[in-house]
Specification:
The chain is of the alpha+beta class and about 450 residues long. The protein has helices spanning about 20-30, 45-65, 75-85, 110-120, 165-185, 240-250, 265-270, 320-330, 360-375, 390-400, 410, 430-440, and strands spanning about 30-35, 40, 65-70, 75, 95, 105, 130-140, 155-165, 190-195, 205-215, 220-225, 255-260, 275-290, 300-305, 310, 315-320, 335, 335-340, 350-355, 380, 400-405, 415-420, 425-430. It has 12 helices and 23 strands. Strands 3, 7, 8, 9, 10, 11, 12, 13 and 16 form a 9-stranded mixed β-sheet that branches.
RNA sequence: CGGGGCAUAGCGCAGCCUGGUAGCGCAUCUGCUUUGGGAGCAGAGGGUCGCAGGUUCAAAUCCUGCUGCCCCGACCA
């Protein structure tokens, strides 16, 4: 992509409304624009990151055995009356009426709808287990949206819903998601720690929040330091191996970890002082087992081997990709801007033509751009007629992992400079070596 | 939902107290010079001062109402 043809509205100054670093950097880097309180448009750069995040979420959901679908944003109020949540949910739910005065709502979550779909088709225990998920926009009319994408009203959510014949099956479904989540966040360059959590309006009695530690986090969290170094299950983990998954979950729940609502100061105090981590955290995922809370009132039942009908055991599992974009920035930035982990970066590399208009420099940069693009590398080419300093500042701000500096100084020795954004490491090499480096 | 604050050019702000031709920096456009860490000079464009009433000869400025947004607290992917 040539920067001259891209849409990247960089802000040189910080908009005054942005308090936390991710909000500030997303606005400055031209990733998003606020359209109303807690409602944002994703601009091209922001969309690229959001899609990368969704891709990882999707891959790990699929790997764990969940099946993707897509439910609508608008739901009928009747569904929510069936579960009894229509009156309970309160003002957070955006209620709307269509032209026929029918009561509708913009979905804050999809338990009712997915249960309705399930019960319409599934009759037998033989069709279980089943885990259906989608990635769809949600709306929760927060009293006070803030911190940009971190606490928006409209947000993208991956929500998965598991259906099992009994509690044992549901526990395995829960464990699948637990392990999938560990892998998902790790791939995005985040250290997420599962913590015992409150179940809130979703209900149920087993729940973990996946929290990443960040000073700008919204909640106080407490955990054992050893969690920070626990190994993440590999891509070869067998999601059908019940006891293997249980072992992983057992390990990851063996030590103390709790959010402030579930915090037990006395228990926490029994840890040796150097193992006590008390920090602020950002919730990036939340999983629930809630049994028959919805299947019972909504009559989602299956026939068992004995022919008797029983309500299915369910769980739901959320990840907020739009919030994750912000969370990743909170975890990876410096004074100059964002430092994207490669897995979620909007582009893998950026070529900086440091002397646009100089024929030798233009030729070298163009050649490099064509070569990298030809090899399938997603590269942004800064071909603007701007000063080198401005280009460096932009490149640092938008956080592309690799910067390739092409200028007369290096070209005099037949070299370009390759700079890694994450650690600032830089190295002179020939253009051919630069291509090879980026192919790794 | 309680408390506080803001609304003037794309962004950041001054002007308001004490009413009288709407300003500054950055950005944008043109030209020349410049080109390895946000360049210099010269010129130009861009505003129904959030909206609606009121007071006044005259309102960005004073008064009333409304709307939007932000911050702190109680609530949440």
């Amino acid at each position: 992509m040539r920067l001259s043809r891209f849409f990247l509205p960089i802000l040189r100054e910080t908009p005054k409304e942005a308090e936390i670093v991710s909000h500030r950097l997303m606005l400055r880097a031209g990733m998003m624009r606020q359209e109303a309180a807690g409602i944002y448009a994703f601009l091209p750069l922001g969309l690229r990151v959001l899609e990368k995040v969704c891709d990882i979420v999707r891959e790990e959901q699929n790997r764990s055995g969940a099946i993707e679908m897509l439910m609508p944003t608008i739901q009928s109020a009747d569904l929510w009356r069936e579960s009894g949540r229509y009156d309970v949910y309160g003002k957070e739910m955006l209620r709307i009426k269509d032209r026929h005065e029918r009561e509708m709502l913009f979905g804050p979550t999809n338990e009712e709808m997915v249960t309705e779909i399930f019960r319409a088709y599934v009759r037998s225990y033989k069709d279980l287990p089943l885990n259906l998920y989608h990635i769809q926009w949600k709306f929760r009319d927060e009293v006070r949206p803030r911190f940009g994408l971190m606490r928006g009203r409209e947000f993208l959510m991956k929500d998965a819903y598991s259906f099992d014949v009994d509690q044992a099956g549901a526990t395995h479904a829960y464990n699948r998601m637990f392990v999938a989540y560990l892998r998902t966040f790790e791939r995005m360059g985040l250290k997420a720690i599962p913590m015992i959590a409150d179940t809130g309006p979703i209900g149920g009695n087993l729940s973990h929040e996946f929290i990443i530690l960040a000073s700008t986090g919204e909640s106080e969290v407490y955990c054992h330091r050893d969690y920070l170094d626990f190994p993440i299950p590999g891509a070869d983990v067998n999601f059908d191996d019940v006891s293997a998954l249980q072992a992983i979950v057992n390990k990851w729940t063996s030590l103390y970890a709790a959010t402030s609502e579930k915090h037990n100061a006395a228990t926490f105090a029994t840890l040796s002082t150097e193992k006590q981590v008390s920090a602020r955290g950002i919730e990036v995922g939340h999983i629930f087992y809630f049994g028959t809370k919805y299947s019972e009132p909504m009559k989602a039942v299956v026939a068992g081997p004995d022919g008797g009908e029983k309500p299915v055991h369910m769980g739901s599992y959320g990840i907020g990709p739009s919030r994750l974009v912000a969370a990743i920035i909170e975890a990876h930035h410096d004074d100059a801007g964002i430092k994207w982990p490669e897995a979620v970066a909007p582009f893998k590399a950026i070529i900086l033509n440091l002397k646009q208009g100089d024929s030798a420099t233009d030729r070298a940069a163009e050649t490099l751009y064509r070569e990298l693009t030809g090899k399938g590398i997603d590269v942004l080419y800064d071909d603007l007629d701007a000063r080198p300093g401005a280009k460096f500042a932009t490149a640092d701000l938008i956080g592309i992992p690799w910067q390739v500096l092409v200028g007369p100084k290096g070209l005099a020795e037949g070299k370009v400079e390759v700079k890694r954004r994450m650690d600032g490491g830089r190295e002179l090499m020939t253009p051919a070596d630069a291509v090879a480096r980026l192919m790794q």
